[in-house]
Amino acid sequence: REDEEAEEDFGDHGLSGRKAGRSILVDSPVVQPAPACRCDRGYPRSMVEPALEFPIRIQPNLKPLLLLFGVHDDGKALVRIDGTSLTATFGRFHAQTDLSNIERWDITGPYSSLRAFGVRRTTFTHDLSFGGSAHGGVRLHFRNPVRAARLQNTDLYLTVDDLEGLGAALAGRGIPGSDLRSKG
């Protein structure tokens, strides 16, 4: 993959940040985070920063059940962050919002297998889950509700494979968050 190759090219300089959404200025010896909305030359971030993709982890024993939601081994279960928006796709279901609409994020879990799979909503709340595994998820808290699965949602749980990587990518774009999993 391209992003892994870039990491190898700069690895001997102690640079990291591929997952944190940082830009490397090759004409400068100093590495700095990318500005919140614009790069040095005034171009929108979406034109200078490659999109980041985070596949939703699919637990092998849940694969048959996830077929009901249109989730196959075809890459249609992922979260994509480009310069200005976040798009989550889970089979036939989609959620999209501007990054500016994400108030904060949390890493939660692990979950019970019953809570972890499919497109589901918790009773008496306005959250939605795109779940493919029980290992944990990133919960996005929205400033304004986001329409997905014909519902208005104030929170979205995403069971991506790389929980810390998605959190770092959001933090790198100025969105605060934390890991709420117990460390014990």
Encode the helix/strand succession as letters: HHEHEEEEHEEEEHE
Q: What share of the residues does DSSP label as strand, in percent?
A: 25-35%
Radius of gyration: 17 Å
Largest sheet: 6 strands, mixed
Shape, per Cα inertia axes: globular
Mean pLDDT: 78
Q: Count the helices. How many?
A: 5
Level of helix content?
A: 10-25%
Poorly predicted sequence stretches spanning 5 or more consecutive residues = 1-41
- Structural class category: alpha+beta
| Span between termini | 35 Å
Tell me the total number of β-strands.
10
Question: What's the arrangement of strands in the largest beta sheet?
Answer: 6-7-9-8-5-10
Describe this structure in words.
- This protein is an alpha+beta fold and 184 residues long.
- It is built from five helices and ten strands, in the order ααβαββββαββββαβ.
- The chain has helices at 2-11, 45-48, 63-66, 113-116, 163-171; strands spanning 52-55, 77-81, 85-90, 93-98, 102-108, 117-120, 127-132, 137-148, 151-158, 177-179.
- The strands form two sheets. It has a six-stranded mixed sheet with strand order 6-7-9-8-5-10. A four-stranded antiparallel sheet has the order 1-2-3-4, covered by helices on one side.
- A hairpin with a 3-residue loop joins strand 2 and strand 3.
- The radius of gyration is 17 Å and the shape is globular.
- The termini are far apart.
- 30% of the residues are buried.
- Mean pLDDT is 78; it is low at 1-41.
